[in-house]
């Protein structure tokens, strides 16, 4: 969105100007850019997400709703992955060095999801 010059519609820093006789072109440009931003946003979202935000009037408010929804889902996912890791135990009959090697790989993989497991854990 930065490359298309539309990010200000996502972060809400460019608001719809109050229409006067002097700035009708600015209002028209803002509305055109808002429509472009809305279109680009909905093209890249799953239909279920688009239906959730369809009645929200501005791109900035839509973006905020999406960020809130996905941030919550991400936090829940991270908590679940962390708990699953912490609950793991060496299976009976498996060599401890093999288990620890698998555990280290899993820990490194979790890091890519934003789940940090320290040695103290």
Question: What this model shows, in words?
Answer:
The chain is mostly helical. It folds into 2 domains: 78 residues, no CATH class; 34 residues, no CATH class. It contains 5 helices and no strands. α4 runs antiparallel to α5. The radius of gyration is 23 Å and the shape is rod-shaped. It starts with 6 loop residues before the first helix and ends in a 9-residue tail after the last helix.
Strand segment count? 0
Average pLDDT metric: 89
User: Major beta sheet, specifics?
Assistant: none
Distance between the termini: 40 Å
Could you say which overall geometry the principal axes of the C-alpha atoms support?
rod-shaped
Brief synopsis:
By secondary structure, the chain is mainly α. 64% of the residues lie in helices and 0% in strands.
What features would you highlight for this structure?
single chain, 121 residues, mainly alpha, 2 domains, 0% strand
Q: What is the topological layout?
A:
Blueprint (H helix, E strand, L loop, with lengths): L6 H5 L12 H20 L3 H7 L5 H29 L8 H17 L9
Helix pairs in contact: 4-5
